[in-house]
Amino acid sequence: MERVQKVISNLGYASRREAEELIKNGKVMINNDVANLGDKVKESDIIKVNGVVLDRNKNDKVYFLLNKPRGVVATVKDDKGRKTVVSLIDTDKRIYPIGRLDYDTTGVLLLTNDGELTNMLLHPSNNIEKVYLAKIKGIIKGSDIYKLKNGVMVDNYKTSPCYVKLKSYNKKTNTSMVEIRIHEGHNHQVKKMFESVGYEVLKLTRLRFAFLDCKDLKPGEYRVLTPKEVKKLYSLKG
């Protein structure tokens, strides 16, 4: 027996967190009874989400790597009517992004209907590395790079030690290009880290998620992950 939110997530209907919200809002039924968080289900149990019976025999997993363009939100739906990353993928499966990138942030984004892999990759204990290139206002000081490397205070927590390297700078435009590699995934973390040492991020690109990059993809383009890549992602579990 498995918790109902895990079953919903693994079937690709929603992420684990979204499934929990559906349950809290009374949108999930188990054998015509309203489900509660923590309820476990058998193979024979009938699960309804928003009145739709889930087909538990249909569990086709799909995995996409997208080069996210600027001006697209990394969500399934947007109440402001903006274009979403899901709308860029040609599939009939209910997919969702693994984690989020800001509206104006570009680069590597994974989308799937595999709830188990999503939860594994996002869990802090697995220390999945994310590599970013930030264009910041100002010529960054060596002392500030040192602070970032050793952790800074953001939203009442101290970030973990990380790799930070100045890639280039331009005195005419008064900007710096800085590579930063983090294993956490807090909201707006990279931007807030630079802000904490006095720099505004003008442009942010995620270069790599784990071992995956999108060098061969133009903004807005995507490709399907290979079975070997999916297997390698699963092997990252700590």
Protein architecture, described:
The chain is α+β, with helices and mostly antiparallel strands. It folds into 3 domains: about 1-55, RNA-binding S4 domain (Structural Genomics Hypothetical 15.5 Kd Protein In mrcA-pckA Intergenic Region, Chain A, Roll), CATH 3.10.290; about 65-125 and about 210-235, Pseudouridine synthase I, catalytic domain, N-terminal subdomain (Alpha-Beta Plaits), CATH 3.30.70.580; about 130-210, Alpha-L RNA-binding motif (Alpha-Beta Plaits). The chain contains 6 helices and 17 strands. It has helices spanning about 5-10, 15-25, 115-120, 140-150, 190-195, 225-235, and strands at about 1-5, 30, 35, 40, 45-50, 50-55, 65-70, 95, 105-110, 130-135, 155, 155-160, 165-170, 175-180, 200-210, 210-215, 220-225. Strands 7, 8, 9, 10, 13, 14, 15, 16 and 17 form a 9-stranded mixed beta sheet that branches. A hairpin with a 2-residue loop joins strand 2 and strand 3. The longest helix is centred in the first third of the chain and has 9 residues, at about 15-25. The radius of gyration is 20 Å and the shape is elongated.
Write a concise synopsis of the structure shown.
The protein is of the alpha+beta class and 238 residues long. The protein has 3 domains: 2-53, Roll (Structural Genomics Hypothetical 15.5 Kd Protein In mrcA-pckA Intergenic Region, Chain A), CATH 3.10.290; 63-124 and 212-234, Alpha-Beta Plaits (2-Layer Sandwich), CATH 3.30.70.580; 129-209, 2-Layer Sandwich (Alpha-Beta Plaits).
Relevant terms:
4-stranded antiparallel sheet, 21% helix, Alpha-Beta Plaits, 238 residues, 9-stranded mixed sheet, alpha+beta, 30% strand, Structural Genomics Hypothetical 15.5 Kd Protein In mrcA-pckA Intergenic Region, Chain A
